[in-house]
Specification:
This protein folds into 2 domains: 160 residues, Beta-Lactamase (2-Layer Sandwich), CATH 3.30.450; 221 residues, 3-Layer(aba) Sandwich (Rossmann fold). It is 35% helix and 21% strand. The chain has 14 helices and 15 strands. Helix 1 crosses helix 3 and helix 10 packs parallel to helix 11. Belongs to the GSP E family.
Length: 394
């Protein structure tokens, strides 16, 4: 293949994808329309129309520039890949469960990366340009996509993709992957059946959403689960789930719908369980209120480094929105007792601890977190958890 011609056509296609250059087309490229646009780009690049064989060859090389995530699409299609990041022209990295590793994909021009980012954002109905230099969207296949353009991104553009699994892992699969021990899986299943509220904690990329989806899949099939998320990622294998997704403000700064508002709306939807995909602000207050007013079995995820840090993280989220510390502690002990903490190590993602939130010293009224179970077996609070489960006939 003529590499010089390929490069000229690719640049022409990138120019067509720039916002304003062909706005209607950037929203709806298909494999069929891609072929027509490649021919147009050939003409604009000053090349004679190729014969059928050459056109097919060019289409195969260039259609990914118009459809999907371009040259990154094969990585996103890999079932082992969970994350793909683009560090400007410095390189592409992919995570297959063992941390980010360099990927054999080259994106040599900032203009090419920018065109790809703008096209993906436009396809999701979001603006991405000099006036709005970052975007966080969900792509049609469920992949979560984030982009930051230069000059905000000093040597960008920077792109981040979090792939979407359309069906939750089973607990058996998580045991086989060494995410859980068999004893932990049995205990977590009892927690779900007992309708004990729980929060899944851990750092970025530890598998919180994956585990939460798997656990929700084991909720009784007659229950109605309402899920509230910033970007729809949870996909439990359950016949009665509904997802509410936040909405950012429009270009005039109006129309935003946040997580807290959606939690309030979920209360009107006759839920058996309310789930917040990721607790990060005022929605913590709404969720705790719901858990304390008859909506048992709720769940969510929370970023923190250790199970013992969960109360402090919840304080940091709730106190700025008017819930006093004493009120927060009272609601936590009454409704949200169980913490499931994940961590990453050299072999992958693992549940490190199942812990309980308890009241500490009566004088200081500080909350404590005690271990109920680890990968090695029962911990100091195993008896308390067992009592809670037996009280609910689980």
């Amino acid at each position: 293949m003529n590499l010089a011609l390929l490069t000229r056509v690719r640049r022409q296609l990138a120019a067509q994808a720039e916002p304003g250059a062909n706005r209607g087309r950037t929203r709806g490229w298909t494999h069929r329309s891609a072929k027509a646009d490649i021919v147009k780009a050939l003409c604009a690049a000053g090349a004679a129309p190729p014969d059928q064989a050459s056109l097919l060859q060019l289409s195969a090389a260039l259609s990914d520039d118009l459809v999907g995530a371009g040259p990154l699409q094969p990585l996103l299609d890999d079932p082992d890949v969970t994350d793909v990041v683009v560090n400007g022209t410095s390189g592409v990295w992919a995570d297959r469960g063992e941390g980010l590793q360099p990927a054999p994909v080259r994106l040599d021009r900032p203009e090419t990366i920018r065109a790809l980012a703008c096209r993906l954002a436009a396809a999701a109905g979001r603006r991405l340009d000099a006036g709005s230099p970052y975007a966080d969207v969900r792509l049609p296949d469920g992949t979560r996509f984030h982009a930051v353009l230069a000059p905000i991104a000093a040597s960008g553009p920077y792109l981040s993709f979090r792939t979407h699994r359309s069906k939750a892992f089973t607990l058996t699969q998580l045991v086989e992957a060494d995410t859980l021990t068999a004893s932990m899986a049995d205990l977590l299943l009892r927690i779900v059946k007992a309708r004990l509220a729980f929060v899944v904690t851990g750092g970025t990329g530890t598998g919180k959403t994956t585990l939460l989806a798997s656990l929700l899949s084991h909720a009784p099939k007659e229950e109605r689960i309402v899920i509230v998320e910033d970007a729809a990622e949870l996909a439990p294998d359950h016949p009665h789930t509904l997802t509410l997704e936040t909405r950012p403000a429009n270009i005039e700064g109006a129309g935003a719908v946040d997580l807290a508002a959606l939690v309030r709306q979920s209360l009107r939807m006759r839920p058996d369980r309310i789930v917040v995909g990721e607790c990060r602000g005022a929605e913590v207050i709404e969720l705790l209120g719901a858990l304390n007013t008859g909506h048992e079995g709720g769940a969510g995820t929370l970023h923190c480094n250790a199970a013992a840090d969960a109360p402090a993280r919840l304080e940091a989220l709730a106190l700025p929105h008017g819930l006093p510390r004493e009120g927060l502690h009272a609601q936590l002990v009454a409704a949200l007792r169980v913490i499931i903490h994940l961590r990453r190590n050299g072999t992958g993602r693992q549940v490190a601890e199942i812990a309980l939130i308890e009241t500490g010293d009566a004088r200081t009224r500080q909350l404590t977190v005690s271990t109920a179970w680890t990968r090695h077996g029962p911990g100091p609070s195993a008896g308390i958890l067992e009592r809670l489960l037996k009280e609910r006939n689980a």
